[in-house]
Specification:
Elements (H helix, E strand, L loop, with lengths): L1 E6 L3 E8 L6 E5 L13 H4 L4 E5 L16 H16 L3 E7 H12 L4 E9 L11 H11 L3 H12 L2 H12 L8 H14 L5 H15 L3 H8 L5 E6 L7 H10 L4 E5 L5 H4 L1 H12 L3
Parallel strand pairs: 3-4, 3-5, 5-6, 6-7, 7-8
Antiparallel strand pairs: 1-2, 2-4
Helix pairs in contact: 2-3, 5-8, 6-7
């Protein structure tokens, strides 16, 4: 994994996982609060088949905003520019959580730049009757309120030790905390410690979170999903606490042209059960 920084209206940190010169180009797109680290367990499993890269979206990982907006729409524009200027050819986008929504927006806006979509527990419209985890509901309700969200998140960043924050997030995203690899915790802690001095972290995170809440349920976003011309593979963990499995099943039923798979995992299967995710992606990539 080689780390680089490129200027796309400001510095963008990204990593190159390598791969065969004749393999399809793949760009991995992380979720809310995530980074390139979200792909370090999956990408090596596909490195013999694809040429993989992962970027840190604006406001996340090692990509500071530098005056750029950090909403899903703005980061979709950044993703399209990344594919155009860094990858240099149409790419398959593999997006988790918010990264799935960003990938959908990018594919809808620039269909010639995107060959296909792998949506791993993406942010989806809430299905009727879906169970929303009360912890997640409370957290997003607080973040949605101007002033309160900023106060709450700044307080957490200032008072909760880095390791405790990392462990909490991983436990929320995994179906079985016993599956959390120690090296994943260590890498997350090291990255968080590097980010301590980054300015406006709370504002960047909340701008993204609020843009998700504003946009995901709108008719316009549903039309974008329905209008995707690219092949889509939707993978979802049945124990996802952030995006209920009912929402994934509803999306799969509404878009029967998509390929759909469920895994025994939580919100981040690419970290929790990367071998199973790779096993779904490998044959799908050969179908187009």
């Amino acid at each position: 994994m080689n780390s680089h920084t490129i200027d796309l209206a400001g510095p963008v940190h990204h990593v190159d996982f390598g791969g065969p010169s004749d393999g399809p180009a793949v760009v991995y797109v992380h979720g809310l609060g995530g980074s390139h680290l979200n792909w370090t367990r999956l990408a090596p499993l596909l490195a013999d088949q694809v040429r993989g890269r992962a970027l840190d979206l604006a406001g996340f990982g090692l990509t500071e905003p530098h005056g750029r907006r950090t909403s899903v729409g703005a980061n979709a524009e950044l993703l399209v520019r990344y594919v155009d200027e860094v990858v240099g050819e149409p790419a398959v986008l593999v997006g988790n959580s918010m990264g799935g929504m960003v990938s959908i927006l990018a594919a809808a806006a620039a269909p010639t730049k995107v060959r296909g979509l792998v949506l791993v527990d993406p942010t989806l419209p809430l299905a009727s009757g879906a169970h929303v985890d009360p912890v997640v509901r409370k957290q997003f309700a607080i973040h949605a309120v101007p002033g309160l969200g900023e106060w709450s998140l700044r307080r957490r960043l200032a008072r909760v030790p880095v390791r405790d924050r990392v462990n909490y997030t991983l436990a929320l995203c995994f179906s079985d905390p016993a599956r959390i690899p120690p090296e994943t915790v260590a890498a997350g802690v090291a990255l968080e410690e590097r980010r301590i001095s980054q300015p406006r972290r709370a504002e960047s995170y909340l701008a993204a979170a609020r843009s998700i809440l504003r946009g995901v349920g709108r008719a316009e976003h549903r039309r974008r999903m329905a209008g995707l011309s690219q092949p889509v593979l939707l993978i979802h963990g049945v124990h996802d606490r952030l995006v209920p499995i009912e929402s994934a099943r509803a999306a799969a039923a509404k878009h029967p042209q998509w390929t759909y798979a469920e895994l025994d995992a939580g919100h981040t299967p690419q970290i929790e059960v990367p071998e199973q995710v790779a096993a779904q992606i490998r044959p799908w990539l050969t179908t187009f």
